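A further point concerns the way the authors explain their paired sequence and structure data. For illustration, here is how one protein appears when written out as sequence plus structure tokens:
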Amino acid sequence: MADDEDFIRFMQVAREDHEFHKRLTFVLSQDNFNRQSLLNTWIADLDLQNAPMELRRILTYLLDEEVAGTALRLLEE
């Protein structure tokens, strides 16, 4: 996953877009249960909106506690 270009692009956008950064940081700052709950809701909403599959796939990466922690650290740099 570390070399996944979509994930790298996702993190770049999250660092550059203030509102997206704010939302993602909030979600990733939650405890494991609440982070997963918020992400699952977000993914379900994106499914209803027929959002790009890549975005939904990347958000599923963040269900993993280790990946979420790494992503949060990257956002906080």
Observations:
- Residues 1-10+31-77 form one domain.
- The chain has one domain: 1-10+31-77.
